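Tokens in:
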């Protein structure tokens, strides 16, 4: 049996997340069907991360075991011929027998895009959340820096996540602007359920003076989800890279 590592890119708008679910169209379920069509096997996919409905990925990694002799250089084209336009296999490579797309990962990078304008732009309709009030990216960037390091992120995780340990290490969290696009980029060794979206929502609520705190630090130290802000919509979130 070969252990293969696939890297995909997908728009999550039409899917109920990555993981296979009964009675729901998911990225993994769609990819499984394509693999079956190409190899004749029903494989078990191991994904690098749970992604929610509407979340996108620029370089999502999954792995699976197969007895198929199809060469890695031919598999992406073969799979893409059975996949819809919003999912694409970018590469395939043979991985060591003990490689696991999730448990072998050392870290991830996410981005959250906000189209900061009162006017709709169809080019960002699926991949960015439109937020009309003018944002001060300098202030947001300064606040984002307060999350760096090894911290307990209990205040920034949603109920329902499987993670027991709320401690994570963020090595990068920046907020930048290019014309009307405000981009949050965050890199760390792992992320809790809805963590990035809650971080973004909290910074926006602080910016709009909707929270009693003047910085995110007291919220972080409280470890209390009720102290943090709203969960930003899924459509602005993209998994950029996975580090191994």
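Residues out:
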């Amino acid at each position: 049996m070969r252990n293969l590592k696939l890297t995909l890119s997908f728009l999550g708008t039409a899917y109920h997340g990555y993981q296979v679910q009964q009675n729901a169209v998911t990225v993994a379920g769609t990819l499984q069907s394509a693999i079956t069509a190409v190899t004749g096997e029903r494989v078990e996919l191991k994904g690098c991360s749970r992604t929610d409905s509407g979340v996108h990925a620029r370089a999502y990694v999954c792995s699976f075991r197969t007895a198929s002799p199809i060469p890695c250089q031919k598999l992406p084209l073969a799979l893409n011929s059975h996949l819809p336009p919003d999912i694409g296999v970018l590469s395939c490579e043979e991985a060591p027998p003990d490689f696991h797309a999730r448990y072998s990962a050392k870290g991830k990078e996410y981005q959250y895009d906000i189209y900061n304008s009162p006017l709709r732009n169809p080019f960002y309709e699926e991949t960015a959340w439109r937020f009309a009030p003018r944002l001060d990216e300098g202030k947001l960037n300064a606040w984002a820096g307060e999350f760096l390091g090894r911290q307990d992120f209990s205040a920034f995780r949603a109920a329902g996540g499987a993670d027991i340990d709320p401690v994570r290490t963020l090595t990068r969290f920046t907020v930048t602007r290019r014309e009307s696009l405000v981009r949050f980029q965050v890199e760390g060794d792992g992320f809790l359920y809805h963590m990035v979206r809650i971080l973004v929502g909290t910074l926006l609520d602080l910016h709009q003076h909707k929270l009693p705190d003047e910085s995110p630090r007291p919220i972080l130290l409280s470890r209390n989800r009720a102290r943090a802000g709203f969960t930003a919509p899924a459509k602005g979130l993209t998994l950029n890279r996975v580090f191994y």
